[in-house]
Design brief:
There is one protein chain. This protein has 365 residues and is an alpha/beta fold. It has 17 helices and eight strands. A hairpin with a 4-residue loop joins strand 6 and strand 7. It starts with 10 loop residues before the first strand and ends with a helix. The mean pLDDT is 95.
């Protein structure tokens, strides 16, 4: 009998943004300065002021960091940490997509650490992660895809060396995830697609993963069942609240799955595409899924799972993902990065057998 375990302590609250003050009061940071990590778009749309208004009765002061950009960069996060250290922040709210959530998760551990350039030392210089504590934190996702609100890792990019790192461990987990699907309504079509593809890739990567457990597999299957129907709906009818809620649920479930298994070969292939050509993460880690599904089916023993994967494959093939990737880089340029696509921590999680020729086949049209 194989052994397995599962642990994810993030408290899930499927509710409305108006519940934020009550949730903040449940954390051990009732008074003092709180950091709101968000994007410029959220501020421009008035959501930052909405958060301040909702929490006006609390005995707190807000500091706002709303210049988070896609793929948070190591030096930028170290600079933000250095700037905010004197403020003695007591809690963090993250309001945004995966990059915002990742940035907030990093700041929640670097700020109480109390040292400048801690990411540079820990990641770039290889001294190891030194975090001993974290700030209380609440994640409020405004996209449906990354699942960052429930994962024990935060992605940090080092563009000076074209590397991708992860700040990892249970300290990185938010205390609470507030899930309000109405916050995804204004998401443009391209971002709706790319983040939705991320959720699907997480679910697939968990299912063909050597680390899967009965719990992670159940989460991933349900995520695919929801997403294969809901994603086409939100692309054609963005105001469909039921489909938006289904995509948010799929994102959370897929995030819970990869929090156990981590990702696999599709993500290994994606990293150099994002680093070198700025291919959006969800697109970069999903355009190879139809071909990987073909490969996985040879080792899959369960017809029900094969049928589910085939239905997802048909949906993905209708989205012209190769054409979308080639808007960023030609196939020739992509193939030049094949040597960087065997990310050892990810490729090794794939259940099937891999070779350089097979990975090249996944990437080629």
């Amino acid at each position: 009998m194989s052994e397995w375990r599962y642990h994810n302590p993030v408290r899930l609250e499927a509710t409305v943004l108006e519940s934020l003050p009550k949730l903040m009061q449940t954390l051990d940071a009732a008074t003092g300065k709180w950091l709101l990590v968000t994007s410029a778009g959220m501020t421009l749309r008035g959501v930052t002021e909405r958060v301040k208004a909702l929490t006006s009765t609390l005995d707190i002061d807000w500091l706002v960091h709303d210049t988070v950009t896609p793929n948070p960069e190591l030096d930028d996060l170290d600079a933000v940490t250095a700037r905010l250290l004197p403020d003695k922040i007591v809690g963090v709210v993250a309001l945004g997509g995966g990059s915002v959530l990742d940035a907030a998760k990093v700041l929640a551990v670097t700020l109480p650490h109390g040292e400048v350039n801690s990411l540079k030392a820990s990641l770039r210089e290889g001294k190891g992660q030194q975090w001993q504590t974290k700030l209380p934190s609440i994640a409020v996702p405004t996209t449906s895809g990354t699942g960052a609100e429930v994962t024990p890792f935060a992605t940090v990019w080092d563009q000076t060396e074209h590397k991708k790192y992860s700040v990892t461990g249970t300290l990185v987990l938010p205390d609470i995830a507030l899930l309000d699907p109405t916050l995804t309504h204004s998401l443009p079509e391209t971002e709706t697609l790319n983040t939705g593809l991320d959720a699907i890739s997480h679910a697939c990567e968990s299912l063909w993963n050597v680390n899967k457990t009965p719990v992670s597999e159940a989460y991933a299957r349900q995520a695919l069942i929801l997403a294969k129907t809901a994603l086409p709906k939100v692309l054609t009818t963005p105001s469909d609240i039921e489909a938006r809620a289904a995509m948010q649920q799929a994102s959370v479930l897929a995030g819970l799955a990869i929090s156990q298994t981590r990702t696999a070969i599709a993500h290994a292939i994606s990293y150099p595409l994002t680093s070198h050509f700025d291919v959006p993460h969800g697109l970069a880690c999903s355009f190879t899924l139809p071909k990987i599904i073909d490969d996985f089916i040879f080792v899959c023993k369960e017809q029900a799972l094969i049928d589910l994967m085939r239905s997802v494959q048909r949906m993905l093939e209708e989205l012209s993902l190769y054409s979308r990737v080639h808007e960023y880089a030609s196939e020739e340029k992509i193939l030049q990065l094949a040597g960087e696509m065997f990310h050892p921590e990810r490729a090794g999680n794939y259940l099937g057998k891999l070779s350089s020729d097979k990975v090249t086949g996944f990437v080629k049209l």
